[in-house]
Amino acid sequence: MKQPEYCFEVMNGLHKDMSSLNSKQGYWLVGGIMTSALIHQETIIDHQAKTIIAPMEASPTITRDNGTRRDIDIVIPEVIDNATALAVRQAIEQSTDRQLIASVFGFEYKRPMTGQDRLNATLFEWTSKRRIDDQGKYYYELFPLSKEVPPESYEPWQLQLPSGSIVTTINPTGILLAYMTRSISGIRHKDKTKLDRLENRIKCDPILKEQLAAGSFTTWREFADDINTLGQIRGAIPDSTIATATPNDLRVFYFKARLLRFVERFDPLIKIAHSQLGSKILRHFNGDA
């Protein structure tokens, strides 16, 4: 029996298996598999049906060029504990015949920061967090930045696989901006080429272009711009800066961003980060998209 070569080939049962987990809010496929689907010239974006119809040629291969297995990135749009995240990850890997490495991300509770919280964020927060407060409002945060985002920007879409099966995802504009808001270093050096192609695809679509410029994703874009500003300009105070931020908080963000951008340009370190061991060691730095 021929071994599957492409990610889409092992994802046909994913939606059914994820639906059986009884998550209140469902799940979203994000990251590299979605990006690959969107940038292919034969992929169709059906706005009325909120469906992305991708051919098999749009699928990335299961195995990367360096021999490692590819990730499948899933967001659960609710607050989940570690045990739930582990159960979801195991279900995904079983559903995909253990051909893909599952990365599962949820939301966190937004709460007033204690002194220990500030210290932990200063030392360990290198990627943005999706948070929800006790009133059900959604936020993107990367200390000392915080931005409320509209719930309609999380409206679910579907990726239709070549087999006809579907997988739940989010608006294509959200896929792009998830990368742009992910890391303290901004758009990563290794992602730049594919994100340039994705941005071009979105800007060539009048509806997606409008959403990026002035629609429901405006606050996502503003947050991405603020990450870039604070990480590039020493002394900047972007609009997303929290009221209690100190000059030292801003300086630390700036130097962390510079450090990570410097590290990300070294190919040997990137190869380590892509390995299974590296993914576990560098979990604080990686984040999802």
Strand content: 15-25%
Helix content: 40-55%
Please describe the biggest sheet, giving its number of strands, its sense, and whether it closes into a barrel.
6 strands, mixed
- The string of secondary-structure elements, in order, is HEHEEEHEHEEEEEHHHHHHHH
Strand order of the largest sheet: 1-4-5-6-7-8
How many distinct helices?
Answer: 12
Provide mean pLDDT, rounded.
89
* Overall domain count: 1
Task: Chart the SSEs and their pairings.
Elements: H1 14-19, E1 28-30, H2 32-39, E2 44-46, E3 51-53, E4 71-79, H3 82-95, E5 101-109, H4 115-124, E6 129-132, E7 138-142, E8 145-149, E9 156-160, E10 166-170, H5 172-180, H6 192-203, H7 206-214, H8 218-232, H9 247-263, H10 267-274, H11 276-281, H12 283-286
Parallel strand pairs: 3-9, 4-5, 5-6
Antiparallel strand pairs: 1-4, 2-3, 6-7, 7-8, 9-10
Provide keyphrases for this structure.
289 residues; alpha/beta; globular
Notes on the protein architecture:
The protein is 41% helix and 18% strand. It has 289 residues and is α/β, with parallel strands linked by helices. The chain has one domain (7-286). The strands form 2 sheets. The protein has a 6-stranded mixed beta sheet. A hairpin with a 5-residue loop joins strand 6 and strand 7. Helix 2 crosses helix 6 (192-203), helix 5 packs antiparallel against helix 6 and helix 5 (172-180) runs parallel beside helix 8. The model is unreliable at 274-286 (pLDDT under 50).
